[in-house]
Write a structure and sequence with these properties.
Length: 659
């Protein structure tokens, strides 16, 4: 292997991949070099290349332990690297913080690898140690009188999984902002979430799957996509409830009447006016902050502890106590909603959603710029919907910089997003293993896969999941590398199944018995039309209205949709208790579909709240930005009204799940 080829490998720059068609694609060498340059490497500087190769490969063999040492909790061993000719007379592992000291038996060592450098052969050995609880620990290794430091990551085999082997749950998925408040508030928040939690738990619902609640751009409310956030480690103040704030601090809710009882205009609008909603919420929160600053209270100590614990995440708000207060309040209210869910009998409670990246120019990006590749952005390789590939505009993390920082940033990310919830869904979970980088070469967009230190990222997920008793769900739609599939299965990371996409090679919907057991099953998600819009083809006509389809394309899409509906009718006639036809009402078809899916082996069945509202308009049309008002569409009815009208469907599904 020549020097540049070795460095490409060490930086995780992919060599090849298989397209959606199954075709084998080898990346152009210049494209791979460009990816390396995006990592800040001067590919023309041989001395720099040699230095980096030494630091990333050879150096780790010249010291017994690396900066991070992974330890399996169930079969604990420590890995060391030594000269093959070294006689080990003393080997101890100690963790001062725990008072832990293990004297290892060198005779039980097992060689698991070797390396030759400058005529010396080095071996990698595994040596058994005493058991340690799951977590991260600063450790000292004594080897023949010499002392070395490492960080032990004691990792469980599996993520936390509260669902018993034969138990099956039912949940709802919502876009929190889309809920319709019962009163005359402009927009929904954690108050409406708490109400929904209590009402749905009473019907036997076990969890609520949320849209990402990440901090968006407070000063630019129209940047409304939760998947292009300002900072994934923080929460959006948009969701803070004035009602819950008043309960917490004993304030008179009537003083916020102007906020809670706004002008009736636009209250029944189809789409939210995000600017008006954000301004109204901030005005109320500033008023609350002024009132609280005039008082003394026990909350100040809790707030101070929060700020100290999240110093890194709050760095952008260094001189803004109000912004910090909003973050503390948001996390407090989210945790309160989760407590309400568990107290009401939900098995899991709230499921948070972690976006795959942050927006360009965001607070998250600017405060961690040294961790990102220079101009590379995350996207997707060519597929039938985008022959040139997709550029999502999300800055790409540099895998080498991430590891050099001992993954402190990724730990922050996971810890922040498992706070106050019962489960975490990771959008595009394949990104833990590889991401498609987009960049420009000769003024043309190109790209390739870049691989990440999956073993370490997976270890963090498992450690945090078990420590905080939060289950993990991975959105694994599309082309999924086999190593991701195996790791998810072994680690009890639940898959995310969309009914629309579960088909065989002939394009027919799969039998429900083929679904994975450890999976969260949905009819669709935020990128796919609601069922009622899908059945009526309204989503296609909407695309034509916004000039996203030409007239010939609409005709073809209509024909394809009719074919899909015929396949669904055939599938329901085969696995359901009654038959349906293309002329059947969407409500009848949907109810039968949920009845069939409720009997499937997937442990988690999720019903979209949009479908219970018989919503036809999509939340989001992928590939659009300004054309359609994405991430603003509201529901037609309040949660109480939707639950009441859907009670028979929900209860039947709960009963089927229990059977």
């Amino acid at each position: 292997m020549d020097n540049i080829a070795q460095l490409l490998y060490l930086y995780g720059i992919g060599y090849e991949y298989h397209k959606y068609t199954g075709d084998h694609v080898v990346f152009d060498h210049q494209t791979r070099l460009q990816a390396l340059q995006e990592c800040g490497v001067d590919v023309s500087n041989l001395d720099e290349i040699n230095t980096l190769n030494f630091e990333l490969d050879i150096a780790k063999w010249l010291t017994p332990v690396e900066a991070i040492t992974l330890v399996c909790k169930e079969t604990p061993t420590i890995t060391i690297r030594v000269d093959a000719g070294l006689q080990i007379n003393e080997l101890t592992v100690s963790i001062p913080a725990l008072g832990y000291c293990c004297v290892c038996d060198p005779n039980k060592q097992v060689a698991i690898g070797d390396y030759r450098y400058q005529d010396t052969r080095y071996v990698q050995l595994e040596v058994p140690i005493n058991a340690i609880e799951v977590g991260y620990y600063s450790a000292e290794v004594m080897l023949n009188g010499a002392r070395f430091e490492t960080e032990l990551w004691v990792t469980p085999r599996q993520c936390y999984d509260p669902i018993e082997q034969h138990k099956k749950l039912l949940g709802l998925s919502i876009q929190l902002y889309s809920l319709k408040p019962a009163g005359s508030k402009l927009s929904a928040d954690f108050y409406e979430l708490k109400q929904l939690v209590e009402a749905s738990a009473a019907e036997g619902v076990d969890y609520i799957l949320l849209n990402p609640l990440h901090l968006l751009f407070v000063d630019e409310p129209e940047k409304a996509s939760p998947y292009s956030p300002n900072d994934r480690r923080l929460l959006h103040p948009f969701y803070i409830s004035i009602e819950l704030l008043c309960e917490q601090f004993g304030l008179d809710v009537s003083v916020f009447a102007d906020y809670l009882d706004v002008s009736k205009s636009n209250l029944n609008a189809t789409y939210l006016d995000m600017t008006r909603c954000m301004e109204s919420k901030l005005n109320a929160l500033r008023f609350a902050w002024q009132l609280l600053c005039e008082q003394t209270g026990a909350w100040r100590a809790d707030f101070t502890r929060f700020c100290q614990a999240k110093q890194q995440e709050l760095k952008a708000f260094e001189d803004d106590d109000f912004a910090k207060f909003l973050q503390w309040l948001a996390f407090e209210q989210l945790t309160q909603c989760q407590s309400s869910a568990l107290n009401a009998g939900m098995a899991v409670g709230l499921i948070n959603d972690l976006a795959v990246g942050c927006a360009d120019g965001s607070s998250e990006y600017n405060s961690n710029k040294n961790l990102y590749a220079e101009h590379a952005r995350v996207g997707a390789p060519p597929d039938p919907w985008a022959e040139l590939g997709q550029n999502w505009g999300l800055p790409a993390l540099n895998p080498v910089k991430l590891k050099a920082q001992r993954f402190a940033f990724f730990k922050q990310l996971i810890q922040a997003n498992i706070t106050g919830v019962g489960a975490l869904r990771i959008d595009h979970v394949m990104g833990l293993r590889r991401l498609w980088w987009c960049f420009y070469q000769d003024q043309q967009q190109t790209g390739c896969y870049v691989y990440y230190p999956f073993e370490y990222l997976l270890a963090i997920l498992k450690i945090e999941s078990v420590k905080h008793q939060v289950m993990i769900i991975g959105e694994d739609l599309g082309v999924v590398p086999i190593e991701i599939k195996e790791a998810m299965s072994e680690s009890h990371i639940y898959s995310n199944i969309l009914f629309y996409f579960e088909k065989d090679y002939h394009g027919q919907f799969l039998a429900p018995t083929h679904y994975k057991h450890n999976a969260l099953l949905m009819v669709a998600n935020h990128d796919v039309p609601p069922f009622f819009g899908w059945w009526s083809h309204d989503d296609l006509r909407l695309k034509r209205e916004y000039q996203l389809l030409s007239e010939p394309q609409l005709t073809k899409a209509d024909e394809e949709r009719t074919s899909e509906r015929e396949k669904l009718c055939h599938w329901l006639s085969r696995y359901g208790e009654v038959s349906v036809t293309l002329a059947s009402e969407a409500r009848d078809v949907y109810q039968l579909l949920i009845n069939v899916l409720a009997k499937s082996p997937a442990k988690m069945l999720t019903i979209q709240f949009d479908d219970l509202d018989e919503q036809k308009l999509p939340v989001n049309i992928p590939g659009t930005d300004q054309e359609y008002p994405n991430w603003r569409r509201r529901l037609n009815q309040t949660s109480a009204e939707i639950i009441a009208s859907s009670r028979p469907l929900i209860r039947d599904a709960v009963t089927s799940r229990k059977e």
